[in-house]
Structure formats: C-alpha cells, structure tokens
Amino acid sequence: MSEDLLPIGRFARLCRLSVKQLRHYDELGLLAPAWVDPDSGYRYYRAAQARDAMSIGLLRSLDVPLAAIGQVLAGEDPAGALGEVRDRMEADLARRRRVLATLDRVLAEGLPQVAVTVRREPARRVRVERDAATPSSIPEATSRCVVRVLAGGVPMGPLIGLFPLDLAEEFVVGVATEDPSGPEILPGGTFATATHVGPYDRIDLTGHGLLAWCGERGHTPAGPVREVYLTVPGDTPPEHLVTELMIRLEDQ
Questions:
Q1: pLDDT in tens, 76-103
Q2: Over the stretch 30-48, which tens digit does the pLDDT of each residue have?
Q3: Domain covering 5-81 assigned CATH 1.10.1660.10 in the classification
Q4: Domain residue extents for the chain
Q5: Can you tell me the distance from the alpha carbon of 252 to that of 220, in angstroms, rounded to the nearest whole number?
Q6: Which residues pair with 243 in a beta bridge?
Q7: pTM of this structure
Q8: CA 247, 167, 157, 196 torsion: positive or negative?
Q9: Per CATH, the architecture of 116-249 is what?
Q10: In what order do the strands lie in the sheet with 242-249?
Q11: Phi, psi values for residue 241, rounded to 5°
C-alpha cells in the first residue's frame, strides 16, 4: 500500500464530508477510492482526490443532482450540465412565485366562487399543435404550441388551450384553432363554462371553482379542459385578460 494513501476517516475530515457520504459517492461511481483493502474492504484515498471530493460537496450544497455532478467531474460539457440545472431551478422558482401569488389572492378573497353557465356546443373542425409538459412547464409548453399554431396561418377565431383534467408527472397539452380543412374534430356536447378575468397564472382558481360546481351537482366532467383565449396578451394588460373555461359534462 502506498504511503500517500489516506484512510477514509482522515480523508473525510480533510474534505469536510462524512464517511457515509464518501461511501455513497463510491457506490454511485462519482468518487472511487484510490485503493480498497481486499481483506477488510477499507477504503483509502489520495490527497489529490480532495478537490473532486470537495467539488461534489459544494455542488450538492447547491442542490445539483448527482447525475449532473457526474457529468461535471467527467468533463462532459460541465457548463451545459450546470446550465440545465439552473434553468430547471429558475423554472421551479417561477412556478413557486405563481403559487405564492395565487395563495395571496385566496388569503385576500377566500376560496373561489365562480358564475357557471351550461350550454350546448357544436363539434368543430380544428387544427391542433401539441407539446409535452410537466406541471411546472405548462406555460412554456403552451407558448410553444401557440407559436406553431400562428405559424400555420391566421386563426379564424380565438385560440383554444386543451389541458388534461388530471395532471400526471408528464402529459400533453394542446392549442387548437378552428379550421374548416383541419384534420381533427373537437367534440361538441353540453359544457359547463366560467369566465376568468386576469393573468393566466391564476386560471387554476377559476378552474377549481368550475370543477367544484360540477362536483356539487353530481356532474361527471370529461376532459380535456378547454381554455378559450378571448383577448390577445400583447394588446391587453394581464389583469384584463379574458379566458373562458369549458368542461364537457359527460353525463349530459
């Protein structure tokens, strides 16, 4: 055994890590010991490994996932790996800010009560653009759909967002526009509708009120939830945006 090897306990103190952390990093393939005693299984490290060990500790303190840390240590586009982590954190922070804003509104105004109307809607021929989303990336995915819909020509009417009733970890959102030659049919039927006035990030409050109305009356809602955008964001202040929410009533 080389004399420059440090036992795991001493190396842990040198790097301000715990023995348990070092063992875990070894099991994950992030930081293998320089030598392992074949008889006792005891791990030994070299002082030259301290920088990598402390880099792992620093990145973990910044909530960087272990997979991204592995890319950084391996030199596999470290800037790109950390940039992706930062982008995800920024998106999560934006989502939390939206949640806080919604909670502030509930605190100020109470749980949402919305005016609901029921009406019949015909089936419509449409063209639809879809994109994959997660609960935190709905705005970005919807925006990508809008861009692609508008790139296909001037809409004949308001854009219609299509969202699943139940949001899993991953799902598909869509944006439709009426088109007589479109390849898809948006089903008609009986719909419960409510009007949301205000920013898009508060639509969930109106949606909650609409679903609560359905539940109180024993109606079974059928997805997708439709958001009919009646105003143009670029021309309308966020507080004055008007969106109609529509939920098809399966039992009607």
A1: 898 999 999 999 899 888 878 888 888 8
A2: 999 999 999 899 999 999 9
A3: yes
A4: 5-81, 116-249
A5: 9
A6: 196, 229
A7: 0.68
A8: positive
A9: Alpha-Beta Barrel (3.20)
A10: 117-121, 189-197, 242-249, 221-229, 160-163, 171-178, 124-133, 184-186
A11: -65, 140
